[in-house]
Design goal:
This protein has 343 residues and is an alpha+beta fold. The chain has 4 helices and 15 strands. Helix content is 11%, strand content 17%. Pfam families: FGE-sulfatase.
Length: 343
């Protein structure tokens, strides 16, 4: 039996876990590749050294600050969009975890009608609530997936430049392999997000709203029932809506959480290598010991200083590898050497 993740429940069971095996990308089992060999919409991130993590006691799993040196790499300038994910699906026939039924063996005793494809959807209550129970604003919605972010009646047809959401780690890794890329390491992600700015309150600088302008798509108002939408968006924003950082990267903060390739352990920073760290060799989360988790970074449209403050520099997120929600997406990176070999 799989460990239960209590974050999204449907009919009394944990429905964001799945035992489904990743589907083959093509009938013969091979992975079709896109025709492009030169990175499209990617930014060259220069090699360098930075201070990773934070000493803020609010982020116990991001302590201590430690020096990391990285080789240069390419990174997608924005999160993978619905249009881009559609091209992958059209080429491969891939079905995301959220589109596949749950395995009854993982949930003994659960009624068969409950084991339906779906995903977690932010569903704000109509009144203020205590912030100690996420189930008051998260619902497992049958039929919710990247094509239908709020359920079967919703569509991304007119939202092609929105980030693709309801993307599990498994789904993101499949796309990256097809595209000839990979998911960023956690160190690469933070280095790129900081873009040369060391240990400041926000990735973009020292003020939340420099010049009175919102710099990222995060939550304004009373969480979770009173989103004012002051930044222009109640939920997702199209990519490249907010200013790019000094490296030319968009939405490294807010909008959607982004998967990294690293396994999650809260103690990893104490032993992390100083050069090109790739994360621990296994996963461990004391809050859910049996789950296999990977790192997530950047926060989402639901982050604010009132709740989910992990949009701040150095902070970390985490997720079970087959979990998904409508604030979870990704972007990819590509090694310099891999690019040279394709030319």
């Amino acid at each position: 039996m799989k460990p239960l993740n209590t974050f999204f429940l449907f009919a009394g069971l944990a429905a964001i876990a799945s035992s489904c095996v990743q589907r083959s990308s093509s009938p013969d089992g091979s992975a079709p590749k896109p025709t492009d060999t030169v990175p499209s919409k990617m930014v060259l991130i220069p090699a360098g050294t930075f201070k990773m993590g934070t000493n803020d006691p609010a982020y116990t799993d991001a302590i201590p600050i430690h020096t990391v040196s990285l080789d240069s790499f390419w990174m997608d300038e924005h999160e993978v969009t619905n249009a881009e994910y559609e091209r992958f699906v059209a080429a491969t026939g891939y079905k995301t975890v959220a589109e596949q039924p749950l395995n009854p063996a993982d949930f003994p005793g659960a009624p068969a009608e409950s084991l339906v494809p779906g995903s977690g959807v932010f569903t704000p209550p109509s009144h203020p609530v205590a912030l100690d129970d996420p189930m008051q604003w998260w619902k497992y919605v049958a039929g919710a997936n990247w094509r239908h972010p709020h359920g079967p009646q919703s569509s991304v047809k007119d939202r092609q430049n929105d980030p693709a959401v309801h993307i599990s780690y498994t789904d993101a890794a499949a796309y990256a392999a097809w595209a000839g890329k990979r998911l960023p390491t956690e160190a690469e992600w933070e280095y790129a997000a900081r873009a040369g700015k060391e240990q400041q309150p926000f990735y973009w600088g020292t003020e939340l709203k420099p010049g009175g302008k919102w710099m990222a798509n995060i939550y304004q108002g009373n969480f979770p029932d009173g989103n004012t939408g002051e930044d222009g968006f109640l939920e997702l924003a199209p990519v490249k809506t907010f200013p790019a950082n000094a490296y030319g990267l968009y939405d490294m903060d807010g909008n959607v959480w982004e998967w990294c390739g690293d396994f999650y352990r809260p103690d990893y920073y104490k032993v992390s290598p100083s050069r090109n760290p790739k994360g621990p060799t296994d996963s461990f989360d004391p809050e859910e010991p049996g789950a296999i988790k990977r790192v997530q970074r950047g926060g989402s449209f639901l982050c604010s200083d009132q709740y989910c403050i992990r949009y701040r520099p150095g902070s970390r997120g985490k997720g079970e590898i087959n979990s998904a929600s409508n604030n979870l997406g990704f972007r990819c990176v590509k090694d310099i050497a891999a690019i040279s070999q394709t030319r």
